[in-house]
Amino acid sequence: MSETRVTVVGLGYVGLANAVLLARHNPVTAYDINPERVAQLAAGQSPVQDDDISHFLATQPLALNCTSCPQQAFANADVIVVATPTDYDPLTNFFDTSSVEAVIEQALAINTTAVFVIKSTVPVGFTAGLRQHLKYERILFSPEFLREGQALYDNLHPSRIVVGGHCEHACHFAALLQQGAETKEVPVLLVNSNEAEAIKLFANTYLAMRVAFFNELDTYAESHGLNAKEIIDGVGLDPRIGQHYNNPSFGYGGYCLPKDTRQLLANYQDVPNNLIGAIVDANRTRKDFITSQVLARQPGVVGIYRLMMKQGSDNFRHSAMLGVLRRLQQQGVTVVIYEPTLEQREFNGCLLVNQLEQFKQKADVILANRQHADLQSVAGKVYTRDIFGQN
């Protein structure tokens, strides 16, 4: 397989994981408008927290360069992978896809032959509409199925490779992903772009539904003084359900699940539905319940141990913990936060205490979405619904 010159736009979890994966066998240029991220990568450091990415940057021979210059990024690329943020906009009830559109338009002004592969999550019908709008057919969509903190691992060992296209360019990009992966027997689906976009949204919504289900099971158990672990173990022994992705939490969160479920709900505007809306509502109800359980303890000061959703991640965008934090503030509760990744003294009007022992002393109740050895000495103060000690 001959080398393919690849440019990856966006150095978040998705972009960086793909850049490292593809740079194992092909020359890759990583492009980002944030000069700090580019400088970090140029120094061999990962701009995101991911142990495998850091390990590969430090030890593996990668054909990886980085730049913040559009001309250098786009001029000679055969394939341009777009992995820029597409946050959900509650005002428009849609993903904000402006960054994806701007990147492709900017690149086309420099390079008129490249194949574009959108890795950002977009609404169903976006890619086909963009091809028509730009009158350019070489635009594909390939959904990403990764976990924050384990993004490279999930690309090295993918559950499946999906590319929205039945053309030679789609086959070629699927082959590039297969070439970089360590797991070689990977199912490959070449589908239309609309179907590929729907696969992404429905997959994340199913995961959100599973999280919401086990959280509601846990809410029932806690409300009635039942042992949630025993119930979950018994339910999970049914092979149709399985004993995986079943650990209760303060609600689903992170970058993908909240926005993808809302986007899918928006796509259902003219289609009969009940379940998708119920998933969104269930997540809100769970955070209300968690807040009520904390308030029942009548704490003077509530401590929040880490804002991120998952261990091994440094991202707390749309974290369920933020939803609980807002609810506590609305009830007039004093909240202190332990989050060593933040250097400022305050966050959302709350005091940041970055000395762990000082934090433990200040808090009457400590909220932890996931258990941690840091809190063993104050186990009596800790409120968590983490039953299995895993994400």
TrEMBL record:
Leader sequence segment: none
Family annotation (InterPro entries): 6-PGluconate_DH-like_C_sf, 6PGD_dom2, NAD(P)-bd_dom_sf, UDP-Glc/GDP-Man, UDP-Glc/GDP-Man_DH_C, UDP-Glc/GDP-Man_DH_C_sf, UDP-Glc/GDP-Man_DH_dimer, UDP-Glc/GDP-Man_DH_N
Residue numbers binding substrate: 145-148, 200, 245-249, 253, 309-310
Presence of keyword Oxidoreductase: yes
Residues at which NAD(+) binds: 32, 37, 86, 121, 148, 259, 317
Enzyme class: oxidoreductase
GO molecular function, one term: NAD binding
Tree of life domain: Bacteria
Active site per database record: 256 (nucleophile)
EC number: 1.1.1.22
Domain UDP-glucose/GDP-mannose dehydrogenase C-terminal: 303-390
Pathway it works in: Nucleotide-sugar biosynthesis; UDP-alpha-D-glucuronate biosynthesis; UDP-alpha-D-glucuronate from UDP-alpha-D-glucose: step 1/1
GO terms (BP aspect): polysaccharide biosynthetic process; UDP-glucuronate biosynthetic process
Keywords: NAD, Oxidoreductase
Record's keyword annotation contains Cell wall biogenesis/degradation: no
Catalytic activity: UDP-alpha-D-glucose + 2 NAD(+) + H2O = UDP-alpha-D-glucuronate + 2 NADH + 3 H(+)
Assigned protein family: Belongs to the UDP-glucose/GDP-mannose dehydrogenase family.
Name this protein carries in UniProt: UDP-glucose 6-dehydrogenase
